[in-house]
Description:
There is one protein chain. By secondary structure, this protein is mainly α. It has one domain (7-52). The chain is 55% helix and 7% strand. It has three helices and two strands. The protein has helices at 7-20, 25-32, 36-45, and strands at residues 50-51, 56-57. A hairpin with a 4-residue loop joins strand 1 and strand 2. The longest helix is centred in the first third of the chain and has 14 residues, at 7-20. It is globular.
Amino acid sequence: xxxxxxxxxxxxxxxxxxxxxxxxxxxxxxxxxxxxxxxxxxxxxxxxxxxxxxxxxx
Length: 58
């Protein structure tokens, strides 16, 4: 899957997928064949952190 380069758009796409289909970033990354550590690092650099209690990056 081609993910957006813009960190705000990336966060939005990932959060939508987490809300609608996946119960965790691990499940999302495995299903979409995305490197989890790379995804988390990109979002972290943009100031976002995964919040498991809401299954979203904020």
